[in-house]
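=== Structure Prediction Worksheet ===
Name of assembly: unnamed complex
Input type: mixed (protein and possibly other molecules)
Chain count: two
Listed entries:
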Amino acid sequence: MARERTNVLVCAGTGCLASESEKVAKNLELIIKARGYSDEVKVVKTGCFGFCEQGPIVKIDPDNIFYVRVGPKDAKDIVDEHIVKGRKIDRLLFREPDMDEAVDKHEDMSFYKKQLRIALKNCGLINPEDIYEYIALGGYEALGKALTSMTPDAVVKEVKESGLRGRGGGGFPTGVKWEIAKEQDSNVKFMVCNADEGDPGAFMDRSILEGDPHSVVEAMAIGGYAIGADKGLVYIRAEYPLAIARLKNALSQARELGLLGEKIFGSDFSFDIDIKLGAGAFVCGEETALLNSCEGKRGEPNFKPPFPAHKGYWGHPTCVNNVETFANIPAIINRGAKWFSSIGTEKSNGTKVFALAGKVNNVGLVEVPMGITLREIIFDIGGGIPKGKKFKAVQTGGPSGGVITEKDLDTPIDYDSLLAKGSMMGSGGMIVMDEDDNMVNIAKFYLEFTMDEACGKCAPGKIGTKRIYELLNKITSGNATMADLDSIKQLSYMVKDSSLCGLCQTAPNPVISTMKHFWNEYLDFIKDADKTKEEEKSKVKNKAVIDA
Amino acid sequence: MKIKSLDQLKKIREESMGRVNLRHGEAKGDFIEILVGMGTCGISSGARETLNAFVKEIEKEKLENVKVVSVGCIGYCHSEPTVQVNIPGHKPVFYGNITEDKVSSIVKSHIIKGEVVKASTINISHERA
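=== Predicted Assembly ===
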């Protein structure tokens, strides 16, 4: 058999699959076979490349040519022109907005130039369903290193010194979390992966599990070793069928090679992972609600303390970390805390994955070093606002965050700077809005979401979010008065201060922040209300005159 | 098979390299490029066999950071198959009439030792706009 000379990488992430990439891959395979090149050319289905706006993506290696918006019908040209004759297909190359010249290599595209990939390093590079490809790129060496040459204390110390903070939104130092769980005196402990990504517009956790599931499996085992847990759980929403399938496949491959199971790497450490499916409730991303749901109870939060690290799954010490947090762990163990902490800002180390969506040219998934500015993300990587419209605001932190406006675009992003600007990092959803978007309607959209998702356990959350939503509805329908604006403000702070868990404590943020930055847009509705009322009054008067 | 030590894992890594060594990861740095002309004239004079011979030879010599890429016709149809070798920091070198049997000497002398196989080079005098 001839040696393979070409790999054709086809994106098989959910986004590209939705635009027929499965068919593209199938056609490529059929035509390659028909032309007699099956021995030399391999089609590889990979995870997400991140450039979802331009999907389906097809990349030819080692040529390093990046084709965009490839349809099933383009497969013939890719084989007959590129593979057989070595000719690039100009019409399938990417063109920067407003530029004529085609760019054939991804590293020359502004979308990729400023990115730094740690958590996403294998996404779009390997076949996520093949453990040997993961191993070929150094996979499971961090676990081997930890088990054979590091004590659990040393692992915790390394993670602590790396400065890694929780990527699910809270930003709590991961090493500290592990240390607390490690210190608990108990024979039974659990390492839990939170894959209940519920923030509308965020899809980094799904993409990591779809594109590089082994990185999470490996990291959970490392975490289990560090804290002294022999059991792991992944809590993942049932709406992520592809991520679940690839994770299941990864688990069984890891078991087959003894990378999960008894006495891993010949050490005394044993570890295995179960999957728990969630029904897709936003509140189950909160760790105590998540654990309740894992136990088969209603997905409602508990009052903290006790924290899960003290009393978690079935009352045992439990450490809950997010998917993206885990995906950083193997690199930290392999390359060291010092390397990791050299990336990013003083208090936020490493990178963050953002899901860029809304009114922006290059919609997709990007991983950037902390400390980059929002302007760089939206205008350099994101390619700016479509149709020459004016930028208005960007919502970070999803329904729990707030808006950031033009004047703050040059702030270096990290956990603390976003909080200081009245928003938050959250899980990394980033929704861009242009001059056509009305901010009161945006706030209403988020409140409708949180009102639906509030679990109903505490009164401020259950009733408060509904009343805020009703008031917003009153405003946008033009029936509100100045007194209503006062009520909504007061109510927002009340819900923020008195709700039980993070969901409703942060639910009023979109209202508070849009009121702060776009007060006039609220007033516009009120003015209209006043005007219509005057008109109505005069109508009544006129009618009275006529009747008389 | 169960992996019972870090050495075993590393051995499996070695054996699996073939699955990914064509991929263009980010940390790989500079590549030596071997471009094989795959125009109709190239293919009819055996360019496909030449290209596959390069891939095989590079694997045999366990060379990293060398990639073999098929390209279109460069217009030297009288000397097909044509091959261009780009070593970062050096001027590109063009070879003509590179049939399968000449591949091994180019890899052994030019790619590994940096010595151009003068007997097979052709002079390319055109400028690229």
